[in-house]
Amino acid sequence: MSGPILSVRGLVKRFGGLVATDGVTIDVRPDEIHALIGPNGAGKTTLISQLVGELRHDAGTIELEGRDIGALPTARRIGLGLGRTFQITCLLPEYTVLDNVATGVQVRQGHSFRFWGNVRGETALRETALSFLETIGLAGRADEQVANLSHGEQKQLELAVALATEPRLLLLDEPMAGLGHSESRQMVALLMALKTKVSMLLVEHDMDAVFALADRISVLVYGRVIATGTADEIRDNADVRAAYLGEGDELC
Amino acid sequence: MDNSIKKQILLAVVAVLLLALPFIASATGYPAMTSLATRALIYGIAAASLNLVLGYGGMVSFGHAAFFGLGGYVVGILYQHYTQDDLFLGLVPGTNQLLVTLPVTLIVCGAAAALIGALSLRTGGVQFIMITLAFAQMLFFLFVSLKTYGGDDGLIIRRTNELFGLKMRDKQTYYYVCLAITAVFFFLLWRLVNSRFGNVLTGLRQNARRMAALGLPAYRYKLVAFIISGMGAGLAGCLMANFLRFASPDMVHWTKSGELMVMVVLGGVGTLFGPLIGAAAYIVLESVLASWTEYWQLGLGFILLFVVLYTNGGIEALFGRLLGRRV
């Protein structure tokens, strides 16, 4: 199928008088990393929340592979192929690294109304989960408690858990936030390698990462997309320079 | 592996002790111990049921007395119609057979839990606590006003339900019946909490947002857990009514919900056997303290305070640490 995986048209979200998302139109094509950048408070996370259904939009449409998902609850959207990682890591703290991923695999496999068999004893489930950890490079920490992971490892685990839900489109909410330099580079390499398997909408502040990864970039300012294009087009765009890049210290 | 062997040995020792308890009781000259233990087992089932939603699922239900009491009233009402030889609502004949009253209890309490749960689970947090409490109190006042079934005074069940021609009135026999049912109950519960279902239920308590992001429709899992939990509490109520040969609005009162919660906290929230230990501790403390003073709840309060502040996970965790298990 040649159409976009994700197609958002005229999305609007108001909080009282504040228009947090103001007619956003954005596409993610197959095998594309589409980056979404913008200054703090531009409404990037609000947009992600609407895409996964944690917030309800007031107007506009959200289509995943041609299917309108705007009215569906979060769980259904995930079931249809949306995946996400959280800006502030959102994991199951009492479980081990492997359990976190295995739970994702389990939910992907269908309903969990199975009351008898020991879930920790299902070797197929464990092995599938382990393969996702290997992809991400966290297999060595499989039996570690999540609480004992470093911040960088938790970010990696976020990604492994999201992959375990086998998404067609991955919404990445600042995967580099809080990572050290080498960890960031590792994450960039990881996302690069995943690109052929899954399309991504990447929200990120780290410009080096964005320019290294993104096929296209959209710039969000005050809830509005002011430009969409390749890295070079965005760099040369006068509006973007004025609204965003020109503000200087936002860049780091 | 070392730990699991230790656990199995401990379990075997406890099982032997429980089996031998009536003999120990009569040998040591405390025959009342058997009755005490029966009550502990029954409350253990009720508390463990509550713990399934409270400890594993993170749903703080303050209305589990509703199901406990309902279970008791199923036995009482069916028995009354049995002795009067008429029909409940002009439809259902009464019975005094445990093999009938027990399944009926499970069905009735499951249906009640489905109804209460379906409405309550639309809320969360404090609202959930309050709405479950409200439903339980509604049921309480319903039974108080039902003059046909004893109203305020409750229902006397003259004879314990029959089962396989056993002498159910005999304290020892009834203890063993309860012990067998408790064993089956905890075996099923053990399978359940370690199953796929238990896995997502525990996940929901830890992080509901994460489970939604995995694509889990939370509501139906919580509801099923709530129904199972209600059925468990009903089972305990059924056994208790048979034990006391009495069902009264007291069983439905909110203080009973509180007692169950105290047992869970005392024993260990979110552990398999914690609530059973908690129930036993509660029953023993109640009888020991009450023999000293009528203000026994003051003493219980201090002990609960100690457990909550210093054991870091109830008596179960305390034992675990004493046995050198890493917590």
Automatic annotation (TrEMBL), chain A:
InterPro entries: AAA+_ATPase, ABC_AA/LPS_Transport, ABC_transporter-like_ATP-bd, BCA_ABC_TP_C, P-loop_NTPase. Keywords: ATP-binding, Nucleotide-binding, Transport. GO terms for molecular function: ATP binding. It holds the Pfam family BCA_ABC_TP_C. Residues 6-247 form the ABC transporter domain. SMART domains: AAA. PROSITE patterns: ABC_TRANSPORTER_2 (PS50893). This is ABC transporter ATP-binding protein. It comes from Ollibium composti.
TrEMBL record, chain B:
Its main location: membrane. The keyword Cell membrane applies. The chain crosses the membrane at residues 53-79, 99-121, 127-149, 174-193, 223-248, 260-283, 295-319. Pfam families: BPD_transp_2 (PF02653). It is a multi-pass membrane protein. CDD domains: TM_PBP1_LivM_like. It is found in: Cell membrane. The keyword Cell membrane applies. It comes from the Bacteria. Keywords: Cell membrane, Membrane, Transmembrane, Transmembrane helix. This is Branched-chain amino acid ABC transporter permease.
